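Colleagues,

Please find the record for the two-part complex below.
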Amino acid sequence: MNVLSFLAIDPLLDGDLLWTPLIIVLLKVLVVFVVGLVATMLMVWFERKAIAGMQNRIGPNKAGPFGLLQTLADGIKLFFKEDLLPERADKFVFRLAPYLSFVPAFLAFAIIPLGGDFRDGNGGFVTWFGETTRVQLADPPIGVLFALAISSIAVYGIMLAGWSSGSKYPLLGSVRASAQMVSYEASLGLSLAAVILVCGTLSTSGIVDAQSSIGSWNLVATGVVPFLIFLVSATAELNRPPFDLVEAEQELVGGFNTEYSSIRFALFFLAEFMNTITMSAFIVTLFFGGPQPITIGDTTLDIPLIPNALEGTVWLLLKVLVFLYIYVWFRGTLPRFRYDQLMDLGWKFLIPASLGWFMLLAAQRLADDRGWDQWLVVPLSLAVIIIAFIMMQLAFRSSDRNREAEGVQF
Amino acid sequence: MELFVFVCAALMVLVGALGVVLRSNPVHAALSMVLTLFGIAVLFVSREANFLAAVQVIVYAGAIVVLFLFVIMLLGVDRAEDLRAEPLGRIQRPLAIALGLGVFAVLTTAVVRARESLRFKGEGIQTASLEDPDGNIRQIARSIFGNYVVAFELTSVLLIVAVVGTVVLARRRKSDRTSA
């Protein structure tokens, strides 16, 4: 029983191990896996099509209706290509690396609430075959921390792929990747902490449950800033444009995956797009109420004809699509960052900003608990943060001046 | 079930630990360490310390070993070492074996003799349940930021001092550069 408690706080797993819960869990695993794969396939198509539209091209249009099956065709092609193993590669690690980036992409998907009825204090529970459960594969009590742990494991895939190739450019790509992902994980975690502070729980379904109307969406409740920081850090964590220095074609041939071919390359490709989907779903879960319907005040936008238990999935899909489009949009419009700009943005702006905002929220919360005057506490802590920010800028400036005087370049 | 999990996790820890020492390639050694850290995380989970398990993976596997690997790659010291070479003459190997056995003996006696007092006494640890999924985390927070807040803050000061010290040591003054 104690191992199960890590997997889920779910009434399905409470009590004796029976056949029905077991089959439901197995079905959930299967559905999550298949949905993940199909969504990735469609995402690749969507990205190519949307980018093509932005660049006045047509994009894939031959395989299947609207070119929908193009990804499938590409996948089959990659399967039948020759699998090359570079002579100077570290063979074991070279084979291991694609799985290290592919598996975490799917694991992180497991904790996202994919639907369910969150209305009227239902808490997201649905009843299937007489068993009450959640529409999510696992709901660990450590919830969002699990996602952070998984995303920190995902670094290994890229890093080891570049190193084990035994060649210069992949190595450069992976050194960039590890520095970038470790740096941005800090601001990712700190903006996540703001959400946890406001919701008072770590579990993803608990966080969704706390966001019952637009006013209580964490986007509003945490004051927009953590969301913006999270969006930027997530983009950097995903190595997507404008933060795709890991696979900067113009500088690094192809980046960390230069030496990979065939199915191993396909796994990296799949992991990248799967991660984009997972991260979009995660943003929606954290800041936009996940499968909750859009509620303004007392009026809930209800989709007719669909039962409430299914409607959550529709809402989640609609919200996730918005973010998937935003990611494609980033790729279509923003030029790539320079490496020092990337590090400056991460360490000198995002981390202090997320930390400062977290302190502000904590002060506001403390004032709320103690019954202090909010109108005094919030401006006061804002003033403190602004003074701290000015002091930090002055410190940066003087250190820049010192460096210039000493003639150091970076 | 519990025994099975323990045996698997213990095997992970031991294989990883042996790998750190015996693998000649530094990157493989660092990866073995990741295996060890994961084994410890599994042990934490089987003791229902979910938060500790997550932090173990995030901090140790996700940040510290990544930094190790980063430095190994950046400095280009990722060539396999020749383990047959004796670094400090012939005396070191027997000395290390003797010392290792000594430490092992001390630890074993300590564990055996302190078994009674190591057994948990007190109110017990609250584990995550359906009614209160965050109970475990709240308890950890209470003890870190309540009972042991001074020790906690002192530790963070220590870390800051270490960081500042590293920066000061690594920084080259202008006079050093011109003379060099």
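Chain B has a mean pLDDT of 81.

Comments are welcome before we finalize the supplementary table.
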